[in-house]
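sorry for the late reply, my laptop died twice this morning and i had to redo everyting from scratch. anyway the thing you sent over, i finally got around to it. pasting the sequence first so we're on the same page, its 637 residues, then the predicted structure underneath. double check i copied it right bc i was rushing
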Amino acid sequence: MLLACQAGALQAAAPAAASHDLSLRLDPAAHALQGEDRITLPPGLRGSVTLTLAEALRVERVTARGRALPFTREGERLRIALPPGTRALALRYGGRLAGDEPPRVAPEGTWLPGEAAWYPRLAESDTVALRVRTPAGQQAALTGALRHEQREADGGNRADWTAYPGEPPTLFAGPWTCETRPHRGLRLRACFHAEVARLAPDYLDDVAHHIDRYAARIGPYAYAGFDVLTGPDPVGLGYPGLTYVSRAIVALPFMRARSLPHEVLHTWWGNGVRVRAGGGNWAEGLTTYQSDYALADAAAQARMRRDWLLDFAALPAEGDTPLAAFVTKAHARDQVVGYGKAAFVFHMLRRRIGTEAFDAGLRRFWAARRGTEAGWDDLQAAFEAASGQQLGAFFSQWVTRAGAPALGLRDVAWREDGVGLTLTQSPDGAPWTLQVPVVVDTERGPEAHVVALDGAQARVDIATRSRPLALRVDPEGDVFRRLAAGERPAVLRGLLLQPAAQAVVPDAMAAEGRDAARALAASLLPGAGAPVPASEWDRARPALLLGLGPPEAVAAGFGLAPPDGAAMGAGSALAWAVPGAAAPTVVVAAADPGALQALARSLRHYGAESWVRFDGARLAGKGLWPAAADNALSARR
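ok and here's the structure:
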């Protein structure tokens, strides 16, 4: 399942733009479209113009002032000879766009991405007015403002749109039931396939709520409305004023709880303010922090921060890049930095300058950059203006530098009214400048302190109001860092992020079991290749061990101890990360081949857990291995 976001795609400099008055007729049953485009060219073009049009679409004629113009095609490049003084063209084109992948025109769901050149484009910044005609039983949606819509005599539908600026428009269509609701001058619309149409009112309620919440905190919503569309593809994608979601997952709880508000917020970060090319994609981290994280309660936020740190601990060295180098999520390794670490940086920034200044900085940023591109430097300027603080060192170390510090604690000296300690860091390269929380447990309760650490070590003395009993350094995980010994339980992600992982099956596994194991391994570890027999298992390499039978028997077959505790409950399959393994190792024990294959779409979504138990495809239990009672960042009197 791909859960991604098109918002925040980096924009490149574009040539002078054209404007399009485009009429499009879709024929999903025939996988075909027919287009008539009246193009107004920018001034200064002489001799010829080169447009981009998908290779599958043939050009039937090109005219100017009623006269046919000669043209040539080479792949997607359409070169048209221009008589002197030509400022406008009329172009007729069409063709079939079939297949499972976009761009396509199909009965169950048409998807024409903007980058696919489904109309003859001069530049990405072209303006587009579109009239789209769909047959009976089909409706269309564009990343743009709906100006007019009407049912025609034959039962078909015609809709007139103006595409939003900033990126080429994307067009969708489907056999939808559409429910429309006005909200504070906006047009909200849910267009769902019949089997999930009952969910439309709840989705519209949620969209209205999230738009109001974000507008109150950031600034006015930037688009004419917001559409939620379902489709046959295994995706969840965000576009300006629109989200496109698999109809297979739209009813799942996480869609409304987390994915929908995330995509609504992208209409501010990534669409309303676009990401400037060349300096890193800040939009995914900011959206994750203000949506996924902000919607959680305090306990869930603490777990989310710990998950981000566990993900970073599992990240192979080659995947650890600066935030300034993150563009988009091409692999789960990219998400560790571009989503998790970036969100964590915003968390540390808010703690440093305070919530009031943090919110004021975002409002400044939105007001100044709305409708334009921006980078990390623009965010820095907005937060500096709002807080009155110089933040260059903070942004430089967290945005342009890879890695993270590892904290240490030594030389603890207890007194009746306080405690002395030395706080250390082991960075790669120069020391980081950090504000480190230290909690001292006293006879009257815990006391929170903050220690400034900008060198390899700092000796500090903390006065307490009553007798200190214990202390904990960064106990809630508020500093982005490398977790200390005792803080890192083995988790599934430790294997899933490894490019050199291998899949292993028992030597005697039957063919049906091997086929199921191969399918699961391919979904979890695309680069692992076919599973190898246990007799060829290289124990020095990360490994996914796949077997059939009770967990105890499967573990014994690989020479391992079985898991214990809550993991060993009822269910058809159990996956667990092996604690203390020389290399990241995950075991999957399933009752039969069907139970093994049922995990192919689900298991990869639980990478932050130490163990996950399933009953068929239904989650039956999950958890982390217990943390050590003491670790390198705690001390007791």
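Residues 1-14 have pLDDT under 50 and may be disordered.
thats about all i looked at so far, will dig more tmrw
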